[in-house]
Write a structure and sequence with these properties.
Elements: E1 9-16, H1 20-30, H2 35-43, H3 48-67, E2 75-93, E3 99-115, H4 151-164
Antiparallel strand pairs: 1-3, 2-3
Helix pairs in contact: 2-3
Amino acid sequence: MSAVERQEVRAAAKWVRISPRKARLVVEHIRGRTVPEARTVLAFTERAAAREVEKLLRSAVANAEANHNLIGDDLVVKAAFVDEGPVLKRWRARARGRAARIRKRTCHITLTLVPSGTATVTRAPEPPAEETKPKRAPRRKAAPKAKAETKQQSVAKKDEAAEDKPKRRAAPKPKTTRKKKESS
């Protein structure tokens, strides 16, 4: 071992009945933070996974204080990750005798705490802040028509054409009378 022994405290919660994708959203917020900061973030996070991660954080701090004689508030969350657990498969009846699969996902959450003096936090590298190119070229506007007429001009032309032609009257339709049925 090296001259300075690094103490790492791990705590894991297995088979937690939360989707791993949802749990990862919460865990990303506490990675690299001190324990008091992480507790504050989790206390104000409204997701259900935050309660489970908060319980796990309390457990990891208790492990550090009881087993390694460390001070809980001086610890930093070095690593926090969520792995997929087994999936419970259930079925739900659907129309026409069919069945739809329901996947009840589980996950394993792991936290690693280290004293704040030796913290080299493993965070996901952030992408460089560069301008992103649009996925496709913007749509072009249609080319204007060569002879664009306004509505007023088109109405005026119709009026002129109507004046030139003599007006024809439609022939009257012959009236048909219905014969009444005679009742006897």
